[in-house]
């Protein structure tokens, strides 16, 4: 039997999840079939997949506490009453064109595979609770869909801050639970001077703390370089010392820089300190605590991260800490998740300070230029252009000479279709060649034309960059005669 979390604990986990990656929930239904609407969680890229998984796990605990059953994924005709007619019409169109198209197993997008485009039954049950009870749910549009002379009214809505709305719901439930408990005590004791048991005190504290964060301070005084420093947790928010380059979450000590990849001394010093902080925070309280930067590097290698260059080391550290943050949240250890998230942010800030990735694909290693006191900084940063794989050679590339100068209207479907048509005509190529250049699936290109990709999608950005820069199409790879 699993340990039942309190409403306050669930609210804390949701707020921690929001700090990692905000989520929003989109809802679409036909009028009269609102109980069988489609729910889609956004964004659906990068670390959001792990955040989705953590949110759905929290949703399971919530509906368990509410005592409500999961809601199965709706059938196609439950969501769309005219789905069978629509599929039949599509099959008829294909038949007239001399093709065979079997849509007997077709389902609308959002109702297919759980965790791909459909939400699981437990998450659906909780989302339906929020749709009915949360003020965060908003109807965004009403429309109609025409088919064979008939019109079908539709309605769409969303919860723009899903984790925040869910956390607020849990806090209200905690408040109601405490209030009901106090009411029963007043009724039983017949007096206002009632006591509250320890569990209710904890729940009350959780509600009153609201969004306060737990900060971490490391005391470097009297600490041997080989021993983990003393870590102190402080309620009330993250102190201002948590800034890139400012000692606050790190212990200054001597270490062998030979263990780190080549790079400027300042960068190696900062990375060494952060690596020490990361491994110390991760192994504190364990039977074998570690504190050396080399221990952090060894850990990354054990997880098969490539850390041959300094930038690879920074990226690997960010990715590994991101996974550790979600693991801490999944087991309900919010304090550890906040600490690891802060360290991840410091690695990210350090990478942004020393590295950037321009459109050409070259890596720029740069250091800011300081200006004399009281004068304006007019000179640009000094940049050393480093070609990937060769630190001695420059690899900057100019845009294709035939790059589009007038641009296209990517804000409308007609403009996007026109842009793709102009690209394929200019290069005398297929849309699949454009998709390969943008490193997306041809289906994603079709979604982009219909504006079905999330606004912040990297796929969307790559497609538009390929068209705007008129990048050379990528032909299909020819199979070897021996294969």
Main β sheet profile = 4 strands, antiparallel
Shape: flat
Over all CA atoms, what is the radius of gyration? 28 Å
Strand order of the largest sheet: 2-1-4-3
Low-confidence stretches: 191-254, 357-406, 478-483
Beta-strand share of residues: 5-15%
Return the string of H and E elements: HEEHHHHEEHHEEHHHHEEEHHHH
**Beta strands, count:** 9
Helical segment tally?
15
Secondary-structure-derived class = alpha+beta
Number of domains: 3
The CA-CA distance between the termini, in Å, is: 53 Å
**Percentage of residues assigned to helices:** 40-55%
Mean pLDDT, to the nearest integer, reads 74
Describe what this molecule looks like in 3D:
There is one protein chain. With 483 residues, this protein is α+β, with helices and mostly antiparallel strands. The chain has three domains: 7-170, no CATH class; 214-356, no CATH class; 413-468, no CATH class. Helix content is 45%, strand content 12%. It has helices at 7-20, 48-66, 76-79, 83-96, 121-133, 162-189, 198-209, 265-283, 293-302, 310-330, 334-354, 413-427, 431-437, 442-449, 458-468, and strands spanning 24-30, 38-42, 137-147, 150-159, 214-219, 230-235, 355-356, 363-367, 382-386. The strands form three sheets. The protein has a four-stranded antiparallel sheet. Strands 7-8-9 form a three-stranded antiparallel sheet. A two-stranded antiparallel ribbon has the order 5-6. Helix 2 (48-66) packs across helix 5 (121-133). The radius of gyration is 28 Å and the shape is flat. The model is unreliable at 191-254, 357-406 and 478-483 (pLDDT under 50).
């Amino acid at each position: 039997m699993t340990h039942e979390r309190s409403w306050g604990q669930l609210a804390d986990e949701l707020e921690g999840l929001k700090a990692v990656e905000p989520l929003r929930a989109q809802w679409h239904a036909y009028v009269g079939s609102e109980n069988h609407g489609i729910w889609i969680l956004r964004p659906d890229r990068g670390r959001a997949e792990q955040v989705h998984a953590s949110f759905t796990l929290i949703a399971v605990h919530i509906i368990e506490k509410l005592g409500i059953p999961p809601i199965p994924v709706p059938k196609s005709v439950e969501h769309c009453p005219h789905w069978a007619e629509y599929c039949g019409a599509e099959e008829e169109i294909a038949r007239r064109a001399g093709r065979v198209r079997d849509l007997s197993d077709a389902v609308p997008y959002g109702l297919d595979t759980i965790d791909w485009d459909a939400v699981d039954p437990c998450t659906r049950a909780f989302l339906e609770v929020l749709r009915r009870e949360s003020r965060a749910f908003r109807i965004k549009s009403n429309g109609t869909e025409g088919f064979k002379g008939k019109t079908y009214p539709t309605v769409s809505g969303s919860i723009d801050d899903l984790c925040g709305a869910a956390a607020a719901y849990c806090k209200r439930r905690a408040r109601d639970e405490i209030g009901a408990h106090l009411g029963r005590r007043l009724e039983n004791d017949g007096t206002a001077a009632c006591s509250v048991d320890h569990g209710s005190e904890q729940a009350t504290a959780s509600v009153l703390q609201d969004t306060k964060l737990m900060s971490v301070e490391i005391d470097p005084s009297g600490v041997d370089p080989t021993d983990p420093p003393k870590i102190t947790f402080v309620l009330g928010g993250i102190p201002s010392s948590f800034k890139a380059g400012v000692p606050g979450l790190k212990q200054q000590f001597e270490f062998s820089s030979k263990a780190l990849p080549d790079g400027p001394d300042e960068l190696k010093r900062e990375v060494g300190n952060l690596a020490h902080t990361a491994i110390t925070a991760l192994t504190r309280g364990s039977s074998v605590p570690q504190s050396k930067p080399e221990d952090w590097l060894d850990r990354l290698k054990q997880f098969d991260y490539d850390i041959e260059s300094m930038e690879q080391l920074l990226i690997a550290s960010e990715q590994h800490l991101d996974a550790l943050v979600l693991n801490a949240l999944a087991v309900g250890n919010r304090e550890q998740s906040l600490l690891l998230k802060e360290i991840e942010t410091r690695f990210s800030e350090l990478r942004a300070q020393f590295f950037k990735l321009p459109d050409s694909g070259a890596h720029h290693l740069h250091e800011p230029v300081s200006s004399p006191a009281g004068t304006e900084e007019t000179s640009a940063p000094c940049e050393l252009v480093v070609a990937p794989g060769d630190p001695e050679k420059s690899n900057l590339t100019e845009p294709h000479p035939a790059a589009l100068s007038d641009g296209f209207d990517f804000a409308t479907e007609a403009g996007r279709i026109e842009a793709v048509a102009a690209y394929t005509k200019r290069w005398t190529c297929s849309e699949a060649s454009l998709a390969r250049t943008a490193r997306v699936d041809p289906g994603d290109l079709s979604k982009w034309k219909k504006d079905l990709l999330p606004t912040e999608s990297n796929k969307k950005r790559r497609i538009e960059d390929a068209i705007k820069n008129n990048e050379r199409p990528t032909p299909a790879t020819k199979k070897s005669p021996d294969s």
